[in-house]
Amino acid sequence: MRPFRITKAQARKAPALGAAFFVALGLFAPQAHAAPAGQASAATPPATKAAAPRSIPVPKAPEATTGGRPLAAEDDAKAATPKAAATAAPTKAAKQFSAAAAGNGCDLASFSNASGSTLVANVKAASLDCLNTLYPLTGTDAGKVFGEAKMVAVADALRTNAATYPGDNSTSTGQLVQFLRAGYYVQWYHSDVVGTYGTALQTSIRGALDAFFAAPHSKDVTDANGQTFAEAVTLIDSAQENARYTGTVKRLLGDYTTSWPSFMTTAVANTKTVIEDGFDQPAFIAALQADPAFGTTLSSFVTRNASLINGGDMVTSIGILIGNYVAHDELKAQGRPIIKDLVTRFPLVGATGPLTMNLVWFTENKDKGNCSVYGLCDLPTRLPPLVLTNTKTCNANLRVRAQEMTEQQLADTCTSLINEDALFHKVIQDNGAIPGDVNTNLEVVVFDDYYEYSLYAGAMYGIAVDNGGMYEEGNPAKVGNQARFIAHEASWLRPDFQIWNLNHEYTHYLDGRYNMYGDFEAGIVTPTIWWVEGIAEYISYTYRNVRNADAIAEAGKKTYKLSELFDTVYDQTPDAAANSNRVYRWGYLAVRYMLQSHPDDVKAVLAKYRTGDWNGARTLLKSTIGTSYDADFSTWLTACAADNCGSLPPVNQAPLCTAADTRQFDKNCRRDNLAAATGNYSYHFLYLPAGVQKLTITSSGGTGNADLYYGGSNWATTANYQAKSTNADNGETLTITNPPSGWVYFSLYGQQTFSGATVTTQYQ
C-alpha cells in the first residue's frame, strides 16, 4: 500500500489519537523509558549505507508511522481512496443516517426510491448538510442510493447544469457534485452492495467535469465559485480521472496568488490529492511525461509562494509531491533538475526543512546511488551540526547531542544514565568489559520529537525511521567505532520531559559491552532475545522504580512456558503485536524470574555469552535447564499477577545481625526471611549512639508487598510514624537525618502478605 505524506502541522495534530491507537493494538510494549524528572562517508548516499552490525530498533512511539520515510503512514483505506466530506464519518448505515439527517430535512427515500429526473430534482433540492450524511451509507441503503444508473443520471445533470453555471451555487451545482462525491466514496468501500461502476458512468462523469471546468464562471476567483470548485477538484480524484485533468490542476497552480480568497485557496490545496493519487496511475504518469510543463509549474508554484512555507502549509505538501518524479523511470529526467534546484534553494532546517528533507528522502530511496546529481552526498556530515545544536559531555564515556534541550534537561539526562550504569553493574555483577570491546563511549542523539526524528535521522545516520529510535552498536572490536543511541523526546508527554526509551536503550549499550560478545548479528545466531530485550526492560523499569503494569497483566495469562521464552526471536510470527508482547513483556518476566529465582544459572549463561559460546549457552538453557523450571515459573506468574513478583536480594549484602533478639539491628547488618500477613507488622529496633548524622534502612527481596515505617523513639505503625516508604513491592528505603540517640523503632507492614524479605540498617 502506498504511503501518503503529511506535513509538520498535520503530524502534530495526531499524538493523542495515535497513542490510543497503538496502545489499543499493543504495538509497543515498553512505557516511556526516559530520564526521570530531576535526575556514512561523504561520497556515499545515506540510503546505501550498510546497516550497523548491532542495530536495534526501538519499540514505536505513539507518533511513529510505518511508511519507511519521513512522516509516511499507511492509508487506512486503499490507494487513491475517494475522500469523504469533512463532516462525514464512515459509520454504520441507516440508523446513523437517520440521526444525522433528521436535523437537515433529509429523507433517505427521496434518494433511494427516486431515479432519473426525479432523483436529480431531489438532489438539487437537498441541503449540502443533508448530502454529507450520505457518506456513511452501507448495505441495502447504499445500493439503492448509489447504483450506477443513478450516478449516471446525476452526472448527466451536472453536465447540463454546467453549461449555465453562474459562478455560485444558485443553480445547485454544488449539490450535484456532492452527491457524486458521496457515491464514489460509498462504492469504493461497498462495491459488493453498490455494484461496479463501468464505462457508462465514466463517459458521463467526463462529460460533466469537462463541461464544468470549461464553464466561464468556473474560472472566477471568488469564494462563491470556490465553494463548488473546490469540491469539483476533489471529484476528479474520486472518479479517478486524475490524468484527464492535469491541465486543470496546472492552471490552478499556475494562476494562484496569495491574494486568492479562502475557498479558491482550498481548491488549490485539494489538487494535492489529485496529484498524489495520480502518481499511482499509469495514465497520469504518461500525461506528465508528455507535458514537461506540469513539473515546472509545480516547481514554480513552490518557489513563487515561498513566503507561505512554514512546514505545515499547502505549498510544502504539494511541493513534496515533486519527489515522486524520481520514483518513476519515465519522469526521472524531468524531476532531477527540479528537485536539485529546490533542495539547493531552500534550507535543510527551519520552516523549509519538511519540504527539503522529504525531497531528500525521494532522492535517497527512489534514485539510489545518484546523490552527486543533487549535491547531497555530504549530508551525513553536513546535517548534524545544523540540527544537533546542543551538546553535553556527561563524562569521558558518555555524550549527549540534542536538537532542543535545556541545560537542565541535558544535565538530568546525564545523571539518569550515570546512575543507571551503577544499577546495571550491581545487578549483573560483571568483571568488566568483554576483552576486545572498544566501545568505551556512547553518543546519545536526541531529536525534539518524532517528527524531527523521522525528518533527519535517516539522512544523517542511514537508519529506518518507522520506529521509536535506534541503537547502533556498530563493530565493538573496531578502533574508532562510535556506539550511538538515536532517540527523540516523547512530545506527547509534555510538559513532562522524557526521552523515549532512553533507559531501555542505554541498557542495550551496557549489555553489549559487558555481556554479549561481538556484534549484534553474532549475538543472535541462537535465540538470545529473551535476555537482550528482557534485561533492557528489567533494568529500565527497576531503575525508574516504575511498575511494569503491562507485563504483570500478562503474567496472569500464562501464555508461555519459561522453556518456550528461551526460544524467542524478534519475528516469531506474522503478528507484529504478538511478537512485541512476547519480546518485551514476556522477556521482562523471564529475566526477572531468572534473576530472582535462579541467579546462579544467569551467571552461567552470561559466562557463555561473554565468550561468544552461543551454542554452549543454548545447551545450558534448553538441555541443562530445559523444562525443569516451567512449573515453578507458572507458580511465580500467579503470584506476580497478584503483585507478588518479588525483588532481587541486595548485592554486596551486609553481614547478618548477631543480636539474640531477632527484632534487634546493629550499625551495619541485615536480617533475612522477614514475613508478616496482610495488615500485620514485623517490628524492629536499633540502638543509636549520640552524634549519628544519617540512618539508612532498606528492605528488599522476597514476595508480597511490605511497606517500611520509621517511628523514631516510638513503635512504628501506619498510624504512628515519622517517615515511610510504600512502593508496590518490597523494595523500600528510608534515610533519616540527625536521628535521636538511644533506641529507635521501625517496622515492615504487610500491605499484602509478604515473606522472604531482607532488611538492612546502616548509619554514620
- Secondary structure: number of strands: 16
Kindly state the percentage of residues in helix. Answer: 40-55%
Bin the strand percentage.
5-15%
Number of helices: 32
Rg, Cα atoms, Å: 33 Å
Main β-sheet description: 8 strands, mixed
Amino-to-carboxy terminus distance? 66 Å
Give the overall pLDDT as a whole number: 86
The unreliable regions are: 1-57, 66-80, 87-100
- Shape, please? elongated
Structural class of the secondary elements? alpha+beta
Outline:
With 764 residues, this protein is an alpha+beta fold. Helices cover 46% and strands 13% of the residues. Strands 9, 10, 11, 12, 13, 14, 15 and 16 form an eight-stranded mixed sheet that branches. Strands 2-7-8-6-5-4 form a six-stranded mixed sheet. A two-stranded antiparallel ribbon has the order 1-3.
Describe the protein.
The structure is a single chain. It is built from 32 helices and 16 strands. With 764 residues, the protein is an alpha+beta fold. The longest helix has 22 residues, at 407-428. Among the domains are: 80-240, no CATH class; 525-643, Orthogonal Bundle (Neutral Protease, domain 2); 664-763, Jelly Rolls (Sandwich). Strands 9, 10, 11, 12, 13, 14, 15 and 16 form an 8-stranded mixed sheet that branches.
Give the SSE map.
Blueprint: E1 3-5, H1 8-11, H2 15-25, E2 55-57, E3 72-74, H3 93-102, H4 109-112, H5 116-125, H6 128-132, H7 139-146, H8 148-162, H9 173-189, H10 191-194, H11 199-214, H12 223-238, H13 246-255, H14 262-278, H15 282-290, H16 293-304, H17 314-320, H18 332-345, H19 353-366, H20 371-374, H21 379-387, E4 390-395, E5 398-402, H22 407-428, E6 442-447, H23 450-461, E7 470-472, E8 483-488, H24 502-514, H25 520-523, H26 529-544, H27 549-555, H28 562-565, H29 576-597, H30 599-611, H31 614-625, H32 630-641, E9 664-665, E10 669-676, E11 681-688, E12 694-700, E13 703-712, E14 723-725, E15 732-737, E16 742-763
Parallel strand pairs: 5-6, 6-8, 9-11
Antiparallel strand pairs: 1-3, 2-7, 4-5, 7-8, 10-16, 11-16, 12-15, 12-16, 13-14, 13-16
Helix pairs in contact: 5-8, 5-9, 7-9, 8-9, 8-11, 9-12, 12-14, 13-14, 13-16, 14-17, 16-17, 16-18, 17-19, 19-23, 21-23, 22-24, 24-26, 26-29, 27-29, 27-32, 29-30, 30-31
